[in-house]
Specification:
binds glycylglycylglycine, alpha/beta, IsoCit/isopropylmalate_DH_CS, oxidoreductase, 351 residues, Isopropylmalate Dehydrogenase
Length: 351
């Protein structure tokens, strides 16, 4: 099969990891009779500085015809953080109905967790993050700026459609995996949105009688991701809680540089988007040492979504092989001193 993929490298280390990962994706594709055509769009904060907008007015229309999007990172130290998010990544997720965000947090063999009790293979969590609503719905306002009565409101939005979609996706995954699902909320303090969320989980659970549901408040879940990460399997959470928990998951499994994600339109009417969980990391931009593995693993999730299981497995397995090999190159986030390019070249050699 042949696929048109839009590349949005974005800001900071985004272009470094996307440029390194794409030849690896191409190699896995070619070895498995998959044809990939890429089109690169240099949208991001530099464009915002030059033109006042992160992407062109018809940017979303241009992306609509692609089979998938591979995204790098956004964020720049010279602009408030909401500008790049509101100008690029969040509109893409919303316009293309990418309600379901899948974020695996896996401790690979050969990778050291900062939690010394755990070894490769001990942690394998799959977080389902609702991806278009909650506190990220862009509902709110600010009044009386600069006065003593200044007020800011940021509302959290939960619709039945999106909540059912994320919850059902999590139950489906739990059915295929261990049959255990952890539902993370803050229902004790948010009696409208989060209790609604719990109600949806209870309703959908009736369709999955074999899945055992554990309920955790997000504060306890954050603690337990550090205290007993090996006991989690599939986790479902709102946009904000999922965003935070997956950073915790990434760090307990060794590095932000290893955490991939998939932003999926469950209706498959629009392109889905794949991106490393990490941000633009301006502190290491231009040094050539950003870890490309989260982007390569995101490419694996992309091929899996496109139905190209062989290419998906080839990418996941080659990353696992490299990490398990103590003589393989590693970037500094994993304790090595190799470059992004050396890691990507080694992956291509293994493929
Ligand atoms: N590669 C993902 C990225 O650039 N993340 C920046 C960020 O802060 N994202 C927030 C989010 O994923 O909602």
């Amino acid at each position: 099969m042949s696929y048109d993929i839009a590349l949005l490298p974005g800001d900071g280390i985004g272009p470094t990891v996307v440029d390194a990962a794409v030849p690896v994706l191409d190699a896995a594709a070619a070895a498995n009779d998959v044809d990939v055509e890429t089109t690169r769009y240099d949208w991001g904060t530099q464009r915002y500085f030059d033109t006042g907008a992160m992407m062109p007015e018809d940017g979303l229309d241009r992306l609509a015809s692609f089979d998938a999007i591979l995204f790098g990172a956004v964020g720049h130290p010279d602009v408030p953080d909401h500008i790049p998010l509101d100008g690029l990544i969040l509109p893409i997720r919303k316009r293309f109905d990418q309600t379901v965000c899948r974020r695996p947090a896996v401790l690979f063999d050969g990778v050291r967790s900062p939690l010394r009790a755990y070894e490769g293979g001990d942690i394998d969590i799959l977080v389902f993050r609702e991806n278009t609503e909650g506190e990220y719905a862009d509902v709110g306002g600010r009044e009386h700026r600069g006065f003593a009565n200044e007020v800011a409101v940021q509302s959290a939005v939960y619709t039945r459609r999106s909540t059912e979609r994320i919850v059902r996706a999590a139950f489906e995954a739990a059915t295929e995996r261990s049959g255990h699902l952890t539902n993370v909320t803050k229902s004790n303090a948010q009696a409208h949105g989060m209790v609604f969320w719990d109600d949806i989980v209870a309703e959908v659970s009736e369709e999955y009688p074999d899945v055992d549901v554990e309920r955790l408040l997000v504060d306890a879940a954050s603690m337990d991701f550090v205290r007993r990460p090996d006991e989690f399997d599939v986790v479902v959470a709102s946009n904000l809680f999922g965003d935070i928990l997956t950073d915790v998951g990434a760090i307990v499994t060794g590095s932000m540089g290893l955490a991939p994600s998939a932003n999926i339109d469950p209706g498959n009417d629009h392109p889905s988007m794949f991106e490393p969980v990490h941000g633009s990391a301006f502190d290491i931009m231009g040094e050539g040492v950003a870890n490309p593995l989260a982007t390569v693993l995101s490419g694996s999730l992309m091929f899996d979504h496109l139905g190209e299981e062989a290419a998906a497995s080839a990418l996941w397995d080659v990353v696992a092989d490299q990490l398990a090999d103590e003589n393989a190159p590693r970037t500094p986030d994993l304790g090595g001193d190799s470059t992004t390019e050396a890691v990507a070249t080694d992956l291509r050699g293994r493929l």
